[in-house]
Amino acid sequence: MTNKISITLSTTRKEKPQADQLEFGRVFTDHMFIMDYSVEKGWHDPRIVPYQPISLSPSTMVFHYGQTVFEGLKAYRTKENKVLLFRPDQNMQRLNLSNDRLCIPRIDEEFVIDALKQLVDIDKEWIPTAEGTSLYIRPFIIPTEYYLGVAPSKYYRFMIILSPVGSYYKEGIHPVKIFVENKYVRAVDGGTGKAKTGGNYASSLKAQEEAEKRGYSQVLWLDGVEKMYIEEVGSMNIFFKINGEVITPALNGSILEGVTRKSIIQLLKHWGVPVSERRLSMEEVYQAYKEGLLEESFGTGTAAVISPIGEFFYNDEKLVINNGETGEISKKLYDTLTGIQTGTHDDVFNWVVEV
Ligand code: COI
């Protein structure tokens, strides 16, 4: 796509939140990126405009059958005032993978990364610098045809919005408590589990609500057939350290292919820590716990970063891990990853891209 991006700057500037009041995804910056798709024109009319509500007819397909995809990545400001993005190419590749699954036309990955850089540059004053904060970038695509038939839309809108954020969980960097879900399932082989589509998250809400009532932050999803094998947490992938080895469920088509997950595996291999991606049952984790071999567990995700897990609720039993405290490998991974992302740690893998 060779379209030039038109830029209309906002004539007013919103007040920025205090760093210590930042939550996840509640406040948005002054501008946003939009482009539209039609069969005749392809993706066209790319523009950066003031952040504002959009108007859609009630018959717009986005309101009916959930044909949506999204991504999440972050921008950081370094001490030297440079703006860094973490592996944006990986997010754009995954966006196209989700597009394919949801019958949405592919985007030009390089063009979108360039658009994203221009948008972040315009709103760079919004990037918070306090420890644990960043600018969350949310690209997403919605179907915009006015039609009630169940079919892929003929029109789409791609948008990018930006939100200064603090930590995703109210626990911050302290360990979270996770409920091992044995009633509801998130995804099955052949379904949309691997795509980043709204429906996966809608279907997780009931389980999440029930877990929260019992004092747990999120649920751990098991496979959709036997409810035995570990999949993911929904807003993050999951890792266990058992008897010196770090294990994460292998990608099986129903697990989201996390960019942080992939980066953590690369880091662990680089350090020479034994790491494997394989099928892992909750029963195996439980046995390891009983034998005192379950040393640590943590979740990984763009929003969640590295989130240590202090407790699982499994079959009416509380499994407390590492005395409910952050483990050594979780801490080292958090420090290294956030160090690379914020430019204070050597970027040995060339993951970081300057805006
Ligand atoms: C992310 O980590 O960016 C995610 O997409 C998780 C999200 C649903 C909050």
Task: Walk me through the structure.
The chain is an alpha+beta fold and 355 residues long. It folds into two domains: 6-165, D-amino Acid Aminotransferase, Chain A, domain 1; 176-341, Alpha-Beta Barrel (D-amino Acid Aminotransferase, Chain A, domain 2). It has seven helices and 17 strands. Bound molecules: 2-OXO-4-methylpentanoic acid (COI). 2-OXO-4-methylpentanoic acid binds at residues 72, 201, 235, 301-303.
What can be said about the biggest beta sheet? 9 strands, mixed
Structural class: alpha+beta
Query: What is the element string, with H for helices and E for strands?
Result: EEEEEEHHEEEHHEEEHEHEEEHE
Under CATH at level 1, the class of the largest domain stands as: Alpha Beta
Bound small-molecule species: 2-OXO-4-methylpentanoic acid
How many DSSP H or I helices? Answer: 7
The coarse overall form would be globular
User: Mean pLDDT, nearest integer?
Assistant: 95
What is the distance, rounded to the nearest whole angstrom, between the alpha carbons of the first and last residues? 20 Å
Query: Helix coverage percent of residues?
Result: 10-25%
Report the count of strand segments. Answer: 17
Low-confidence stretches: none
Number of domains: 2
Remind me, CATH topology of the largest domain? D-amino Acid Aminotransferase, Chain A, domain 2
Radius of gyration: 21 Å
CATH homologous superfamily identity of the largest domain: D-amino Acid Aminotransferase, subunit A, domain 2
Secondary-structure arrangement, i.e. CATH architecture of the largest domain: Alpha-Beta Barrel
